[in-house]
Design a protein that fits this description.
The protein is 88% helix and 0% strand. By secondary structure, it is mainly α. It has a domain of 33 residues.
Amino acid sequence: MTVDLQAHRGRGGDEVEDLLMQIKGLVFVRAILEQRGASPPELDAHRLETERLRSHLARVVADRCNDFDAAA
């Protein structure tokens, strides 16, 4: 049995790329804010959003792995 990689990539690949880009952006912006003396609540807000997106990314990747296992 073969797995249609294009179908899987189209459904979840773009979402994974988007999430990674958002996480990288948040980490980058948080570093800049920290250098500029941002308040602890502002830095914490970026940290919490980064954690939320990382958790979401983990779920998306796990779901894709389950899809591949089911297709095999």
